[in-house]
Design a protein that fits this description.
Elements lengths: L8 H10 L26 H4 L26 H15 L3 H12 L5 H19 L2 H19 L5 H20 L3 H21 L5 H14 L3 H9 L6 H14 L4 H15 L6 H11 L4 H13 L3 H15 L8 H13 L3 H14 L6 H14 L3 H8 L9 H15 L4 H14 L3 H12 L6 H17 L3 H14 L7 H15 L3 H13 L7 H18 L1
Helix pairs in contact: 1-7, 1-9, 3-4, 4-5, 5-6, 5-7, 6-7, 7-8, 8-9, 9-11, 9-12, 11-12, 12-13, 13-14, 14-15, 14-16, 15-16, 16-17, 17-18, 18-19, 18-20, 19-20, 21-22, 21-23, 22-23, 23-24, 23-25, 24-25, 25-26, 25-27, 26-27
Length: 550
């Protein structure tokens, strides 16, 4: 399970938006030539209030909705939209912007065109962190809101308003402007809620509704209690149900809803749902899309299938290198880590260097620098490694950044010992899914007299995880208990996380009382050990889950 600890509920939206580049209809880059799409857009307070708290989404059926969806009325406009979305799936981004600009200049296509142009700018900013991209998004989003204010009342009008408010919440959260983010997010949430209640067959609205329901339900309890006071409620079951309905039968949100289901599967559910199948089908249907290849590769990477992930990431890299196709920097990061996990350090270095050089924002930068430094050190370049470790800093409020910075500071102070180097190779073998290589190395390390307590605790924990992955539950429990006994130091996560996974073993065995006790012990650990917020959230969710089974 990924270790993600958002500062507030708005960062859950950011996670959902940025984790794996979203829906093909939302990704584009490059400077557009909007032509007259920004003309005749005088701003008034009334126009900018579209989908505000006073907006009423009324009626029991989709009265006023255009028959083609997205407020379109002509086949020509529908064809432009289809062509633009098809280009986006292949990440032929300038080409797609051309279609959306032409669509926005049609009388019946202005709202749909502006919606997609705003999405282009939104994801461009999420991917790049460049101020110019944020400004372009806000301009296009404002123009979309003014356009929607002039449209007749309909479910599509309100849905497009909710979508742009959700995007604005992410942008403000990314800037640390949490009050603005909360206001935009509240407006989006209430609009989705009304749409689902008043138009249950309007399945495109179920995507955003389901996304927010699952995101809110997955936050730490402190944030959930605060949101409940403000009228927000999360529920993973109803959220998943809404996302499945959108993925199956919505008009325009199918791919995006399916992607969210897959990402929630790997991030929240331990890959127990059909996330892999969803992403594999999208990849198979669009083999020339670097986006879908990246998403599928990411899923394989997170599930310790490094050899398969490498193959798919290389397909994403090749597709993204075609003329006219946008290149995803994230592929370099994840392909580099995939090679790192296979202990192919020299091959990982240029890919991590490329991500460091080409990506302008802070996303994934701390772990990129840490693993670049580790690759350099394992390849025998200690001086370059130290220079790289010194660059690691905390610029985002995620556990991964804090842990990367703490580990880098320790590595600056002293080179890796022989047991630490062997432990890294063993941990990589486990993360790559090569259990046959990992387990003998880990058994040697746990019996080594020269290994520190921290190294021995980690070896026990990782040996337990490897055996657990192979279904050898009683053996896994033994090594979890050893990791708990040894501890490993102030910031070591091995004991509390071993308690958590021991709870999973008991739960899988059907012993819910022992599982409950283990999860509660995991929550009892104090201090700021690595990934403590993620563990606390996971353990609370597990306690809630087994309570429902009792």
């Amino acid at each position: 399970m990924r270790h993600i600890s958002p500062r507030s509920w708005t960062l859950a939206l950011l996670f959902a938006a940025a984790c794996a580049l979203l829906d093909p209809a939302q990704v584009a880059v490059g400077q557009s030539a909007p032509g007259k799409v920004f003309e005749n857009g005088a701003s008034t307070a009334a126009e900018l209030a579209v989908d505000g708290d006073a907006t009423h989404v009324g009626g029991d059926g989709p009265a006023g909705a255009a028959p083609l969806g997205m407020l379109l009325e002509s086949a020509d406009s529908a064809n432009l939209l289809q062509d633009g979305r098809r280009a986006l799936i292949r990440l032929r981004l300038r080409e797609s912007e051309g279609f959306f600009t032409r669509l926005a200049n049609r009388d019946d296509g202005r709202a749909a065109g502006m919606y997609h142009l705003a999405l282009v700018s939104f994801v461009r900013f999420v991917m790049s962190d460049r101020p110019a991209d944020m400004e372009e998004f806000l301009l296009r989003s404002d123009e979309l809101r003014r356009t929607l204010a002039r449209e007749e009342d309909s479910p599509w009008r309100h849905l497009l308003g909710a979508e742009t408010n959700l995007q604005r919440a992410v942008v403000w959260a990314k800037q640390g402007r949490y009050v603005r983010a909360a206001l935009s997010g509240r407006t989006a949430y209430r609009t989705y809620q009304r749409l689902v209640a008043n138009h249950p067959s309007f399945l495109d609205a179920h995507k955003g509704y389901g996304l927010l329901k699952v995101s809110i339900a997955s936050l730490p309890s402190t944030y959930r209690r605060f949101l409940a006071i403000a009228g927000f409620s999360g529920n993973r079951d109803s959220g998943y149900e809404a996302l499945r309905a959108a993925a199956k039968s919505s008009a325009f949100m199918r791919e995006e809803a399916s992607i969210y289901l897959a990402l929630f599967d790997v991030a929240l559910e331990g890959s127990r749902l059909d996330g892999e199948g969803r992403l594999r089908r999208l990849h198979d249907q669009h083999p020339d899309s670097p986006l879908f290849a990246h998403l599928y590769g990411y899923y394989l990477f997170e599930n310790r299938r490094a050899i398969e992930a490498e193959r798919v990431f290389r397909m994403a890299r090749a597709a993204g290198s075609e003329p006219g196709v946008f290149y995803l920097d994230y592929v370099d990061h994840f392909l580099g880590l995939t090679l790192f996990r296979q202990n192919r350090f020299e091959e990982a270095i240029p890919l991590l260097e490329r991500y460091r050089s080409n990506h302008g924002g802070d996303a994934l930068m701390a772990p990129t620098l840490l693993y670049l430094g580790l690759s350099l050190e394992m390849a025998g370049h200690r001086e370059k490694a130290v220079e790289t470790y010194r660059l690691v800093s905390v610029k985002r409020e995620f556990d991964t950044d804090a842990v990367s910075a703490r580990r880098a500071r320790a590595l600056v102070g002293a080179p890796m010992t022989a047991p630490e180097r062997e432990l890294l190779r063993a941990a990589n073998a486990y993360d790559a899914g090569n259990y046959a290589e990992a387990e003998p190395l880990l058994r040697t390390i746990r019996e080594s007299e020269g290994a520190s307590l921290a190294v021995r605790a980690e070896a026990e924990y990782r040996l337990g995880r490897s055996l657990h992955a192979r279904g050898l539950l009683s053996q896994a429990t033994f090594h979890y208990e050893e990791a708990i006994r040894i501890g490993g130091g102030e910031h070591a996560r091995w004991a509390p996380w071993a308690e958590y996974y021991a709870g999973q073993v008991h739960e899988e065995d059907g012993d819910l009382e022992r599982a409950r006790a283990a999860y509660e012990r995991a929550l009892s650990y104090g201090g700021k050990y690595d990934y403590h917020q993620a563990l606390e959230n996971n353990a609370r969710l597990a306690l809630k889950r087994i309570k429902g089974r009792s």
